[in-house]
Amino acid sequence: MSSLIRQTLASARAGVDSVSSALTALRPNHATSSLVKSSSRSLQSIGKTQGSGWAGIRILGGINTQNYDVVMISPRNHFVFTPLLASTAVGTLEFRAIVESVRTHNHRANYYQAWCDEIDLESKTLVCKSTFQGSGDPETFTLPYDKLIVAVGAYSNTFGVKGVTEYGFFLKEVDHARRVRAKIIDCFEQASQPNVSEAEQQKLLHFAVVGGGPTGIEFSAELHDFVVDDLAELYPRLMDKVQISVYDVAEKILGGFDSHLAEYATKKFTREGIKIRTKTFIKEVQKNKLILKDDTEIPFGVLVWATGITATPLTKSLTVSKDPRSKRIITDEFLRVLDAHGNPMKDVYALGDCATIKDKDLPATAQVAGQKGIWLRKHLNMLAKKGEEGKPFKYHHRGSMVYTGNWTALLDYTDAESKHHMLRGKLAWFIWRSAYLTMSLSNKNKALIPMYWYVFVVDLIIEFGGFVEVMFQHFQVLDMAIRPRHLQVLSFVHRGAYWSDGLVER
After folding, report:
1. Which residue, 100, 336, 365, 486, has most beta carbons within 10 Å?
2. Closest to 3 (Cα-Cα) out of 408, 434, 460
3. Which string of b and e fits 159-179 if b means at least 16 CB within 10 Å?
4. How many angstroms separate the CA atoms of 401 and 93, rounded?
5. Which residues have C-beta within 8 Å of that of residue 457, sequence separation ≥ 6?
């Protein structure tokens, strides 16, 4: 029996799409609807931030609440550790290991679970809409601010391809990963039915990934591991029907990496049977099939769309300077938003995927957003304490990493002496995992992640002694079996027991 059977089915289908979008508002001490509280200082307080992503959470975690009243507005009440989201889509990690409650990062800040639909930069007010619609309470409310921090993130970019939203999956939220995991299992279960033809099995078990960047490559690698290491034991008769394909319009995958590393990933995927189809243009997505530019039809069971980002409606609605190509908000080096005439706005900041610095178009990555958030938090704290601007933001690139499957990864970085370094294989994989473990925000997740990754002892017991029931009461985990790569929650098929949404039912 495989150690894979995961809690995927009913719970994985229950979610809805969401996008990290949060504002932080800062006001003086007497103002309750503000991001940060200012006490006895000449500078007015900070503002509102809409964003529970990398930028927003870095600001929230260390803002000085002795000086500022803080209000965060976001439709998502948790932070998602997005670099490991692909791992949760196939069960390498469980979802709780990559989420952090917004409220635990600053107990003195106010948080409202709502969308910000409008920002009036003249009157310094926000028009927000509660996510709890139909509750009988007013759905819309208005909040004033003294200073505003916009960190609303971005949407997945479909490039106007018809049918992507209806028939594809994105990979930006925990709910996305949950539904992808459920759909993968559904495809295998449907393909194993006795009345399904071989041709239909091949269609169901074709997993298409559109996007040859880090997200698409990591998901493809994780899915391949999932199929080879776990599903092969559960569905051995279907293994010759499985096909994973990566599509991209560029000439090669991983365009942001050194060409030698991209070539290594391409050759590795090819050896493992993952098809790489570059210079491929998708015209339309229909139910269970891709329509290419030349009208070729390609059936699929699961489509994951990972082709980049585009501006949110809130970002588009702002009358400020924007990058003509990406439509991101343009800021100066102090992260202050530039108005329509290119002048910095004293009380409005923007960072994360929704913003870029003038003449310094940094990539929309977690690394950039996190560094900007930490810098702005320190900058605002220093303003409150000394009234000084300090030095402008400077980005320090710490390298790019991507998982390529089977305990291998790529690492591309430049050191402090501007020397370029490349690393690939198992050592790069070890650094990849160590770095992400270090970057996790809470001690809870720093304990959970290696528990899912590195526990080996029970695997030996399983090999020689069969199933073992283990209880970790602190984490509320029951009935576990562990493989070298994963700690996976089992569904016990004996005695009619099964695992459903974290509870064992009999």
Report:
1. 486
2. 460
3. eebebbeebbbbbbbbbbbbb
4. 18
5. 482
Rounded to the nearest 5 percent, the helix, strand and coil shares of the chain are 30, 25, 40
- Which pLDDT value is given to residue 420? 77
Q: Do 210 and 306 meet the contact criterion of CB atoms below 8 Å apart?
A: yes
The one-letter amino acid code at 414 reads: T
Of 215, 204, 285, 277, nearest to 242 by C-alpha is: 204
Global pTM?
Answer: 0.80
Tally the C-alpha atoms within 13 A of residue 209's C-alpha that lie toward its C-beta.
27
Task: Decide if pLDDT at 330 tops 70.
Answer: yes
| Contact (Cβ atoms closer than 8 angstroms) between residue 50 and residue 22 | yes
Residue with tokens 């809870």: 444
- Calculate helix-pair angle for 214-226, 259-271, nearest 10 degrees: 30
> Which of 147, 19, 26, 53 has its CA nearest to residue 351?
53
Q: Give one word for 461, left, alpha or beta, with left for phi > 0 and alpha for psi -120 to 50.
A: alpha
Write out pLDDT tens, residues 267-314.
999 999 999 999 999 999 999 999 999 999 999 999 999 998 999 999
Q: At 506, is the pLDDT very low, low, confident or very high (cuts 50, 70, 90)?
A: very low
Cβ-count burial of 465 within 10 angstroms (0-12 exposed, 13-18 middle, 19+ buried)?
Answer: exposed
Strands of 204-277, DSSP E = 206-210, 243-247, 275-277
pLDDT of 443 above 60: yes
